[in-house]
Specification:
Blueprint (H helix, E strand, L loop, with lengths): L1 H30 L3 E4 L7 H11 L2 E10 L9 E4 L4 E7 L3 E7 L5 E2 L8 H10 L3 E9 L4 E6 L5 E2 L4 E8 L5 E3 L8 H10 L3 E8 L9 E5 L5 E3 L3 E7 L26 H7 L5
Parallel strand pairs: 2-5, 7-10, 12-15
Antiparallel strand pairs: 1-4, 3-5, 6-9, 8-10, 11-14, 13-15
Length: about 280
């Protein structure tokens, strides 16, 4: 019994060895035998690459619609291929290797950002692989970027710093809001506008006992800070359509009659009193 079990085990081991050897043989000569290690075409010219792929029975496809920048590969040579080169990466005969050519080192220039806001300028610098060095503000009537250092169009290295000079409008004149209630709008408005202040909103409301054109409310309130950029709103008194009806004066008393009154006896008789 033991000899039979041992014989079965040995037979199984022998069968497994034969199967493994057969599999390796067929894979090596029928599968791997038709495959080749992927050639390394990086850095080679198109002519050299075509010669290598032709000797291996592989087709070469050059993508002329797209080029890649490279500091190490000369312009026009192969800088990228779609299959990883090496002895562990195989390619079959008759297949295609697609490659892209080098455009040479990336040339960076300081972009034209004059007139842009500081935020837009920093975004443009980041898109060009540049960074902000210094940001300086200058109070002038112009808006946005007025100068950059290095100047626009200068060739610079990646991640170079660019300093920007930003123009901002000067601060407006500051005032303390006066008390203009109970004053005529026709006098107040020219005085405020002469100092650059803007009476932006004028609203009319009926207010008994107040003369037409008199300011009854104001904003900003008295004592609040106000500048030439801040709008000023006022509410002005005005009577309703037809105006307020004035109080009618008392009617004058009628003039005394020149005819004397009738005698008392006659009046008593008229009442029907007995004589």
């Amino acid at each position: 019994m033991k000899r039979g079990c041992l014989g079965n085990v040995l037979f199984g081991i022998l069968l497994l060895a034969v199967f493994g050897s057969s599999t390796y043989f067929w894979f090596t000569f029928f599968v791997k035998g038709r495959s080749l290690p992927t050639p390394n075409l990086i850095g080679r010219s198109i002519g050299d690459a075509r010669k290598i792929t032709s000797d291996l029975g592989v087709q070469l496809e050059v993508d002329d619609s797209h080029r890649r920048n490279s500091d190490r590969v000369p312009v026009g040579n192969i800088v990228w291929q779609n299959r990883t080169p090496g002895a562990t990466s195989f390619i079959k005969r008759g297949s295609t290797v697609r490659v892209e050519l080098s455009a040479g080192p990336l040339v960076l220039r300081v972009p034209d950002i004059d007139g842009s806001t500081a935020g837009t300028a920093m975004l443009r610098l980041g898109q060009q692989n540049l960074k902000l060095a210094n940001l300086t503000y200058l109070g002038t009537d112009a808006n946005g970027i007025v100068a950059e250092d290095p100047p626009k169009g200068t060739v610079v290295a990646p991640q170079s710093g660019v300093s920007l000079l930003v123009s901002v409008p000067p601060m407006p004149a500051q005032y303390v809001m006066p008390d203009i209630i109970d004053r005529p709008l026709d006098q107040v408005r020219p005085a405020l506008e002469a100092r650059g202040l803007n009476v932006a909103t004028v609203k009319f409301e009926a207010y008994p006992g107040i003369t037409d054109g008199t300011i009854i409310r104001q904003y900003p309130l008295r004592g609040a800070p106000v500048s030439t950029r801040d709008p000023i709103s006022v509410v002005v008194s005005r009577q309703d359509e037809g105006g307020f009806a004035p109080v009618a004066p008392p009617e004058p008393a009628p003039a005394p009659s020149a005819v004397p009154p009738p005698p008392a006896a006659t009046a008593t008789t008229a009442t029907g009193t007995a004589p």
